[in-house]
Specification:
Blueprint (H helix, E strand, L loop, with lengths): L3 H33 L5 H9 L4 H13 L2 E2 H8 L3 H13 L3 E5 L7 E5 L4 H21 L2 H20 L10
Antiparallel strand pairs: 1-3, 2-3
Helix pairs in contact: 1-6, 3-5, 3-6, 4-5
């Protein structure tokens, strides 16, 4: 009969080893995913430069492209930003001609966001380039492995979004 303490110690050691590997893979993967889109097409870069937009606008634009139409509140949730910050980003992207805002017919208090028709094609091409590693990963996995992979990401999302926010250490 196996010693319960030994089993617990082995499981803890295995989890710690996996955690160490995962922490390295996670940061490298996230950085590589940021670079995977190859940068925005020239017409989007030009529109961004004319409107003095920065890198933070790119994630907002790609989030809208991935799930449009969506409300500003839903966009804020997806980005992990406050409603006022998200609203400001949407306003700047709208003034740059990249996004369109409209009133929700069912609830006039809600603002719905979508891609501006003038740049829709370029934004969708960029989205596809940025999502290529994700799509290729899902395609390479068996149906069962993909289900486990997605379950793992859902659990990670749940744990991360339910974790209490940690205040940054003060600098002296």
């Amino acid at each position: 009969m196996a010693n319960p303490t030994s089993l617990t110690e082995n499981l803890t050691a295995a989890v710690e080893a996996d955690l160490q590997e995962l922490s390295g893979l996670l940061w490298e993967t996230l950085q590589a995913l940021k670079r995977s889109g190859g940068g925005a097409p020239a017409e989007l870069r030009e529109a961004a430069e004319r409107a003095s937009l920065g890198p933070r606008h790119a994630s907002t634009l790609l989030a809208v492209a991935a799930a449009e139409p969506l409300s500003v509140s839903e966009l804020a949730r997806r980005l992990g930003l406050g409603l006022s910050t998200t609203s400001a980003l949407v306003g700047q992207l709208s003034r740059a001609g990249l996004l369109e805002r409209s009133e929700d017919d069912a609830d006039r208090r809600r603002t719905i966001v979508g891609l501006a028709p003038a740049h829709r094609a370029a934004i969708l091409v960029w989205r596809e380039q940025a999502f290529t590693p994700l799509r290729a990963t899902l395609e390479r996995l068996s149906t069962e492995a993909r289900a486990h992979f997605m379950e793992g990401w859902r659990v990670l999302h749940e744990e991360a979004t339910q974790a209490p926010a940690v205040a940054p250490a003060s600098s002296q």
